[in-house]
Amino acid sequence: MSHLAHIVWTRLTGLMPGELNRSELVWLLSPHAHFSLLARRRATMIVNRVRLFAFLFAVLTPLWAIIDYFVFPYPLWFSLAALRLSASFAFALVVVGYRPSGSLPDAYRAMALLFAIPTVFYVASHQLLAGHQLAGLSAAIATGYAFLPFVLLAGLAIFPLTFLENLLIASPILFAQALSGYMRWSTLDWPSFAGAFWLLTLITGVSNLAGMSQLAFMIALVRQAIRDPLTGCFSRRSGEETMEMQFTLARRSNAPLTVAFIDLDHFKSVNDGFGHEAGDRVLTEAATRITNNLRRGDMLVRWGGEEFVLVLPNTDLHRARDVLARLRHRGFGKRPDGAPVTASIGLAERRQEAAEDWQQLVEVADRRMYHAKTGGRDRIVHADPEESRAAAA
Known about the structure:
Mean pLDDT is 85; it is low at 388-393. This protein has 2 domains: 2-226, no CATH class; 236-392, Reverse transcriptase/Diguanylate cyclase domain (Alpha-Beta Plaits), CATH 3.30.70.270. The protein contains 16 helices and 5 strands. The longest helix is centred in the middle third of the chain and has 37 residues, at 190-226. It has a 5-stranded mixed beta sheet, with helices on both faces. It is α+β, with helices and mostly antiparallel strands. Helix content is 66%, strand content 8%. It catalyses: 2 GTP = 3',3'-c-di-GMP + 2 diphosphate. InterPro entries: Diguanylate_Cyclase, GGDEF_dom, Nucleotide_cyclase, Rev_trsase/Diguanyl_cyclase. It is an enzyme of class 2 (transferase).
C-alpha cells in the first residue's frame, strides 16, 4: 500500500514539475495547512474574482429579458423579468458590498453568495417554466435556462480553490439540478437527465482540476515571493506583512508580542577577508541554525545584509530572553577561520514598550541592538541604558 501511495504521489508531482514539492501537494486538498500569507493573498484573489463574476452577471442577467419578451407569453415573461431584476440587484449588492480584506471566511461568504443567487434563480425559473406548456421557439429558449448550472460549474475554474472547497461549492449546484429533476418526476426524460447530470459532474471535475492548478501556481509564486533566495527565511516585504498581522492580532487580544533584532558581529570582515561566497555561507548557516531552533509560530525575517528580525508571537520579554539565550548557547555557526559567529541582539515587547505599531517595535529593538554592539557585541540588550541605570539605582 505504501509503495502504491508513493507511486501516486510521484505521478502527481510529475504533473506539476518544479511547482510544488511533495509536502505541499496536500495543500491542494484542504486549506487547513495553508500559511497565513498564502491564505490572505488567496482570499484577496477570490474576492476580486467574485466581484468580477458578479458584475458580469449583474449586467447580463437583465438583458436576456429582452429575448424573453418576444418568445414568452406576458404573465410568464413578467415573472421571469422580475426574477432577473431581483437576481441582478443581488449581484450588484455583492459587487458593492464586498472588498478584499484578506480574510478567508469573508472570501467564502462572497463565493457562497455569488453561487447561491443564480442557483436560487435556476430553481425558481425552472418552476415557473414547468407551469407552462411551451412549444417551438418558446420551448427552445426555455431549454436555455437549463444551461445555467453548466455555466456556474464551469465558472468555478477561475478560482484558486482546494479540492474540498471546490466540492463544497459545487454540491449545492448539483443538488439543485437533482431537485429540478425531482420536480418534474412524472414527465422526466431519464436518458437526457442522466446525460446532463453526468456532464455536470464531469465539468465539476475539470473545474476542480483547473482550480487546483491555479492554486499550485499560486503556492509556488507566493513561496518564491515571501522567501529570501539566499537564506530561505522570510523576505523583508513578507516579514513586514506578517508583523502587521501579528501586531493587530496581539493588540486585539492584549497578547504579548516580542521582536528580536539580530545583527551578526564583524560580518564585514568575513566578506573582506574571505570573499562574498564565504559570507553567503556564513549567512545561510546562521539562518539555518536559528530556524531549526525556533518554536512553532516563530518567524525569522532577513531584514537586510547580515541583519535578521525574529518575531515571537505570544511571548513576553522574560520568555523571549530565554529563547534568545538558548539560540546563543547553541551557536550561529562558524566563520571561515573557525571562530564562532556571534550576534548583537536587541529585544522589544509590545506591551512593555506601549508600541503603537509594529514599526515602532522594530525601531526599539534596532536601537537596543545598536547598544549591544557599542557595549561590546555578543550580547542581548532588552532595555535602554537609561532604563537599566534607573533600575539599578
